[in-house]
Amino acid sequence: MTFPFFRNTYSPVQGQTYSLFGDGITTYQYFNSIEKIIDELFREYTLESLVGECRELSQIPFLKRVLVKNKADNHLSNKITDLLFEKLAIYTPNAGNHLKKLSWLKLREQVVWTTEKQHHLYMLEIGILNRMNIQNFQDCEKKIAFLPYCLRDECLDCKAKKEDFDKVCKECTKSCLIGIISNFLKKQGVTAYIWSGKSLKPIFKRHHSKNETLGVLGIACIPELMNGMRMCDKAGFTVIGHPLNANRCAKWMGTWHQNNIDLVQLEEMLIKKQYKTN
Ligand code: SF4
User: How many whole angstroms from 149 Cα to the centroid of ligand 1?
Assistant: First the structure.
């Protein structure tokens, strides 16, 4: 195991709408389920068509989704939605209750209105995009990652400094997950930035003028990650993503809660796993 320190700090966390631990003590089962779902769908459909279907199903209004689901000839839509609910509902136990309690004052914060079905479709789309893009990501001339602040050790006076795209961790301690992840990513040739929540568009605009390929690794809660990955994809950058184990920041919970990720799974994706893509 590459991360003996991380093993000690990795513990189940609950989020406002989801937790990748389900009812277990690791997130292995979650990542394994996603890969199995993709393998199953991939026997009948291309990865590109699955991404298209996920996007359509997660964006159309609820009423239309019901109508699409009831169409007898929409085999793929039915298969995806049924399969996902059967396999992934265990990871989204609070999504329905969260929506019922949500204040209309949050109307402008689109991401907190993510439905349970959208969570599932995003989980699938993130897994498919990773499978499609991992090799191109590895081949990019410049590779960057955006990490969220909620992985930081809140007791410390952070020494991160602004560089190029955003703040870069100075690895001031061994007890901070951002330091551990940044160090691991550096060894893989990926520069990690602590994302301050700024729009990605100006960053991409600036990079487009440079003559080098850019690969982006996003780490965020599932709804935020999906937004960011789609934005990168649309802007023409090679994007992969790794979800936070739960959604626990103030945007979701009202107050800040420390978060974690499954670094072993991140390592698997970046350096070990062989994916079926044809
Ligand atoms: S390890 Fe990095 S992110 Fe964590 S407190 Fe130190 S400088 Fe900040």
Answer: 10
